[in-house]
């Protein structure tokens, strides 16, 4: 059954690793908490960056190489099409660090957990993030900030504060329909978004092959792979 998008609807979409699974990018909890064979709790932390920057950069260089080979799938494209159909009433928040949404044509989006294709100063000297798609073979190759400090991936590590939270909260507060796609409901604050949306009176729909941890907070769940469910799902009403 299609999801009607009424003329007064404002749509907020939250996506997670699951939406990129059909593009060949492994999800994070797919195999016992490993992400592509790495124990991310040993890698995606400020402490790891301090103690073992070579391992952190090895991991993210591999993710960059994988990301460059991947292409958007029908789920990314369906969201870009929906945005084009309801201009000004669509907002996308992704937990993903890949750039498959932008490559599919999404425009009004934020990456709350950062972006693989960017780096920033590890000393936080105030310089903004820079585009950096380099796959580094060793730590010595990693580019430096103008202040001299080594760059770090522009990624939100465990224990760090997600990006753009104020804008995200504003967008949730004014949305009437929240779609959550391919995320396990494990990572906070993203797992709270559905609760905030319900408080604001929005309809909330989950799409994915299995129920997320916060499944009971949704008004509707559609079981299936994002790339199979999303194309043709939305019925934009004039
Ligand atoms: N592509 C990426 O950028 C990428 C990949 C892995 C992890 N991460 C990072 O790790 C964290 C992982 O948390 P998470 O909740 O997003 O992912 P997760 O790995 O914890 O959960 C993945 C979810 O996707 C679902 N899923 C699997 N295949 C699917 C499909 N074909 N269609 C729809 N859903 C599918 C699973 O049922 C599961 O609920 C994120 O914060 C993100 O920053 C990013
Ligand atoms: Zn700097």
Describe this structure in words.
- It is a single chain.
- This protein is elongated.
- The model has no long low-confidence stretch (mean pLDDT 95).
- The strands form four sheets. Strands 6-5-2-10-11-12 form a six-stranded parallel sheet, covered by helices on one side.
- The chain has helices at 18-21, 46-51, 53-69, 74-85, 100-104, 165-173, 193-199, 226-229, and strands at residues 3-5, 11-15, 34-35, 38-39, 90-94, 109-111, 114-121, 130-131, 151-155, 177-181, 203-208, 220-223, 234-236.
- It has eight helices and 13 strands.
- The protein is an alpha/beta fold and 238 residues long.
- The site of zinc ion (ZN) has 7 residues, from loops.
Write the layout of secondary structure elements.
Elements: E1 3-5, E2 11-15, H1 18-21, E3 34-35, E4 38-39, H2 46-51, H3 53-69, H4 74-85, E5 90-94, H5 100-104, E6 109-111, E7 114-121, E8 130-131, E9 151-155, H6 165-173, E10 177-181, H7 193-199, E11 203-208, E12 220-223, H8 226-229, E13 234-236
Parallel strand pairs: 1-13, 2-5, 2-10, 5-6, 10-11, 11-12
Antiparallel strand pairs: 3-4, 7-8, 7-9
The structure holds nicotinamide-adenine-dinucleotide (NAD) and zinc ion.
